Amino acid sequence: MNKVYLLTGGNLGHPQAVLQAAKEAIARQCGPVVATSSVYRTAAWGKEDQPDFLNQVLLVHTALDWFSLLQTVQQIELQAGRQRVEKYGPRLLDIDILLFNNDIIDTPRLQVPHPQMANRRFVLVPLSEIAPQVVHPVTGHTILQLLQQCPDTLAVHKL
Asked: Which of 41, 96, 121, 152 is catalytic?
């Protein structure tokens, strides 16, 4: 089984219900969700003139390889009504693959570890809640260390 950390997020519709539905779809289509962070609210990052985002990190055990996992989570996004209109724009659901085992994946379709995770508190706060001692396979730092060093100053509020 592959050990995968996913970040789910959204800021349109009813985000908390969307995150719950996404978690259920991930469990059905990808594999068991074995750990779940709290849900956190954060101001939009990158494009600030939009509603706050809700985010949650899930630890999933999956038999899928990274490519099949990517296709599956993108299908879950589409089923939830996701439309890729503008970068950093508002969305119903976004699912990012943060970590896939200790693998380093660098392809045009996917980069893992997520290339910006160390710079985003809205990723590191929920990830550190369920995986503080997991080591980032590129930097060699734990998730907790990355959070302590994170340059992002956006407030992240637990719901």
From this structure: 96
**Contacting residues for 8 by C-beta, under 8 A, at least 6 apart:** 19, 22, 23, 26, 55, 56, 57, 58, 93, 94, 95
SS3 125: helix
pLDDT digits (tens, 9 = 90+) for 69-87: 999 999 999 888 766 666 6
The span from the CA of 36 to the CA of 57, in Å, is: 6
Give mean pLDDT, residues 1-14. 95
Any catalytic annotation for residue 41? no
Catalytic residue among 41, 91, 120, 121: 91
Active site residue 152: no
Rounded Cα–Cα distance for residues 99 and 3 (Å): 8
> For a pLDDT cut of 90, what percent of the chain falls above it?
85
Give yes or no: 106 in active site.
no
- 141 by Cβ neighbours in 10 Å (0-12 / 13-18 / 19+) ranks as middle
- The pTM (predicted TM-score) of the whole model is 0.94
